[in-house]
Amino acid sequence: MIQSLIKREQKRQDTKINMIASENMVSKNVLKAMGSCFTNKYAEGYPSARYYAGNEIVDCVEEYACDLAKKLFLCEHANVQPHSGSQANQAAYMAILKPGDTILSMSLDAGGHLTHGASVSQAGQIYKIVQYGLDANGVIDYAGIEKLAKSTKPKLIVAGGSAYSLVIDFERISKIAKSVEAYFMVDMAHFAGLVAAGFYPNPCKFADIVTSTTHKTLRGPRGGIILCREELAKAVDKAVFPGVQGGPLVHIIAAKAVCFEEALQPTFKTYIKNVIDNTAYLCKKLQESGIKMICNGTQTHLFLIDLTDTDKTGAQVSQDLEDKFGIIVNKNKIFNDKRSAKETSGIRVGCAFITNNKKVDKNVLEEIADCFKTVILGTSAPKIKLLKKVFK
Fold first, then answer.
1. Which of 99, 107, 212, 357 has the smallest C-beta neighbourhood within 10 Å, fewest atoms?
2. What digits encode the pLDDT tens for the residues 183-201?
């Protein structure tokens, strides 16, 4: 049964036009590592300090993955054990905060992430959350961050998000954090691949702690990592294990190492440049047709469409794009959205997944843009000859 479902899912991924910004396609070597015999091993603890025997090879795997992560992101310490980005964030908070401490972070509707302090998240229930948003131009309200930091005196300021399309000024936020004696943390889950390839500022230069997933633009297995300054290493490691999780997933750590190896290659830099170029081109084409964007554009792998001037909801557009053209996107709330999370007034679009297909060029992107225009603006149905050839 499962094998038949795997085949069906592979066919779906091959034929659908996946434009979900948080998804990507791993290499065969990453898949092999995830499906390796390392899945059989228990390895609670850290290299040379395990609670199970027989981990001499596992130690080599984890040490190698940590060394690669430090090389890739130019950081002092790396922990590659977190099972997810959410658990990486949970551990990072635990390492430096106490229950009730104040966190200043980007709100969910401004582009932040659930784990940055949404009321329904664990962080929102353990810590006091103060949130910043966007200015009238859809840009992070840096002046607002400074004002809130001075008035609330947070213990931690968090930057990074899941639906923000511009480059974040880490240096400026770092200075604000220092001015109120707060820690500064960056969640780079979405743009880690851009950082690795040199197309986005490296937050490790400015932040005390940096968290990330490895499965988005980094193009690795589903999992998390934490990078930090050496003085926080012991606290971070203790927060990961035994703080928030037990035995690490060794097969996933092995796959993370493969993904780091691949991200250090020149071909990865070419891939990320193509992702950024494709995203910018598609965004521009949609804007030229009159479709409104949050932030008025993009500098990254994603953009956020603002549907408030139309009679469409994010849920409707998402469903219509899939039903009519096989394009997969996700509905997304926008800043000060009056619609619910089930409906939304936004659509998040990313090009990381489709850029793995080397046949995706400007002509293909123009056909994709025509599909969006048909669904959102009601233009006549486009001819989609290239899409049918590229996504068979």
1. 99
2. 999 999 999 999 999 999 9
pLDDT at position 389, please? 84
- 32, 42, 172, 322: the catalytic one is 42
- Omega into 266 within 30° of 0, i.e. cis? no
Summarize pLDDT for 272-291 with one digit per residue, the tens.
999 999 999 999 999 999 99
Q: Answer yes or no: are the C-beta atoms of 71 and 227 closer than 8 Å.
A: no
| Tally of CA atoms within 13 A in the half-sphere of 133 that contains its CB | 14
Whether 275 and 353 have beta carbons less than 8 Å apart is answered as: no
222 tagged catalytic: yes
| Residue of 109, 141, 187, 208 marked catalytic | 187
Q: Which of 16, 23, 32, 44 is catalytic?
A: 44
Helices 56-73, 250-263: crossing angle, 10 deg rounding: 30
Residue burial 151-160, b: 16+ Cβ < 10 Å; e: rest:
eeebbbbbbb
CA gap 23, 29 in Å, rounded: 18
Residue among 50, 155, 216, 219 flagged as catalytic: 216
| Residue in 222, 229, 238, 269 annotated catalytic | 222
CA angle 91, 89, 196 (to 5 degrees): 115
Q: Is 213 a catalytic residue?
A: yes
Please, what are the domains in the chain? 14-23+266-390 (3.90.1150.10), 28-263 (3.40.640.10)
The mean pLDDT of 64-78, rounded to a whole number, is 98
Q: Residue 46 catalytic?
A: no
User: Is 231 considered catalytic here?
Assistant: no
As a whole number, mean pLDDT of residues 162-190 equals 98
Residue by residue, DSSP assigns 123-140 as HHHHSEEEEE-B-TTSSB
| Count of other CB atoms within 10 angstroms of residue 64 | 17
- What pLDDT sits at residue 149? 98
Rg (CA), the chain: 21
Say how far apart CA 95 and CA 156 lie, in whole Å: 11
pLDDT: is 385 or 208 the higher one?
208
**What is the chain's length?**
392
Cβ-based burial of 190 (10 A; exposed 0-12, middle 13-18, buried ≥19)? buried
Active-site residue flag, 172: no
